[in-house]
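Figure 3 (text version): structure tokens given as input.
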């Protein structure tokens, strides 16, 4: 029982490099919006706050880009959050700025925003100034896309639009 060299383990198959993620601009024309507010007692066992406050802003519109999805109806829900305030959010390591989910009849978006951003956004919507939502993120995979940016815009220049996209008047 001498010291024979150990047989080499079979070499692992070469690993493929992960293809770089392709980002897509999701451009939504705003057609309507709705805001709701509720306040109730917080009945959670370990409640940090005795009240449960819920406010959210829902923006509805039509997806202008990309084309070819099941539907072009979009509902984006903006959730004001204390966790997004500057001192608190420094501790976070977010995976995304928002997400989009494809359902049979619509695309539902969810975006957390800083609590103090809600009043100016509402003012701009009331004045009919914001017309476009732009979210940039991954392509849909398993009916979901994660977005790394979210914008509300009054207008977009032709240079900012993907080729072939026309804004309604």
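Below: residues designed for each position.
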């Amino acid at each position: 029982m001498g010291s024979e060299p150990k047989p080499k383990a079979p070499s692992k198959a070469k690993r493929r490099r992960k293809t770089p993620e392709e980002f897509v601009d999701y451009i939504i024309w705003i057609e309507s919006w709705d805001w709701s507010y509720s306040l109730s007692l917080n009945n959670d066992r370990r409640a940090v706050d005795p009240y449960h406050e819920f406010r959210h802003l829902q923006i509805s519109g039509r997806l202008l880009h990309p084309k070819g999805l099941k539907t072009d109806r979009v509902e984006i829900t903006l959730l004001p959050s204390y966790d997004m305030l500057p001192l608190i959010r420094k501790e976070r390591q977010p995976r995304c700025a928002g997400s989009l989910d494809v359902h049979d009849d619509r695309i539902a978006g969810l975006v957390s925003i800083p609590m103090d951003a809600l009043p100016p956004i509402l003012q701009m919507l009331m004045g009919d100034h914001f017309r476009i939502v732009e979210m940039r993120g991954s392509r849909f995979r398993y009916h979901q896309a994660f977005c790394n940016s979210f914008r509300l815009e009054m207008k977009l220049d032709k240079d900012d639009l993907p080729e072939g996209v026309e804004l309604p008047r």
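The mean pLDDT is 87.
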